[in-house]
Amino acid sequence: MIAKSALTGVILAGGQSRRMGTNKALMNYNGKPFIEHILEALKPVVSQIIIIGKQTDYGYLGLAVHPDIIEDAGPVGGIYTVLSHSNTPYNLVLSCDIPSIQTEVLSFLVQNSSTQAINTLSLKGRAQPITAIYHKKCLPTFKQALDAQRLRLSDLLVPLNAHLIDCPKHLESCLANINTIRDLENLENQFMEVTIKYFGLISEALEKEQEVMNLQQNSTAKTLREELENQYPKLKDKNYQIAINQAIANTETSISLGDEIALLPPFAGG
Fold first, then answer.
1. Are residues 74 and 39 located together in one domain of the fold?
2. What domain range includes position 70?
3. Torsion of Cα atoms, 83 then 85 then 86 then 89, to 10°
4. What CA–CA distance (Å, rounded) separates 165 from 153?
5. What is d(CA 108, CA 121) in angstroms, rounded to the nearest whole number?
6. Greatest CA separation found in the chain?
7. Is 7 helix (H, G, I), strand (E, B) or coil?
8. Which among 17, 144, 167, 259 is most buried, taking Cβ atoms within 10 Å?
């Protein structure tokens, strides 16, 4: 596991988004830009954050923004820029087109990382090198690749002996890339983002007071319970109730975007 103090978070947002036709990082999903969803997921697991892109686009976020040192060099150029500017040994690099990303999957990556130069999530046996952690010792290899115009990021995984970490099945949807308007429409029709608050013994057990989750459209209290207990097996042993909009839900109570959801421990005497 990599210590938070040794880890910088990075969002690659300097691409031209040709397939989308506009800046993907600033596309709206569930009421805010992609990049803000990604930042929310990233902040709890890193000590600082760098954005690779234009200051004019991302200065409003109040974070360090750096343009690509070498333009039009894709992710290889973006990661080279990251490694040149970062002052921590490890760097968690994300693309700007994954608005469904969640802290849970990033924590899983960090907790299962080794001391190898690259630790990357793997989805159905395929490496996801823009959801990965890069050590600064990769810098010379990236410089050599740029000098030789070798711009396929996947080609650098083998020589750097990348450590592949299988993504848990229930978190696979977090890695969905949104490259076109149709992709975004499909995402909006499939998932909704909800905030869940935890109280009392439930909050203590999970060591958090709230979190944001992506639920499938037409979810119910029953499917939410199943999703939570899949992610947090310790909940199976807890006696808790789900409240939706301040009313105790039954198993078939539906959940809609914007609902106020809470997990409540047993009340005294109950």
1. yes
2. 4-179
3. 50
4. 17
5. 9
6. 71
7. strand
8. 167
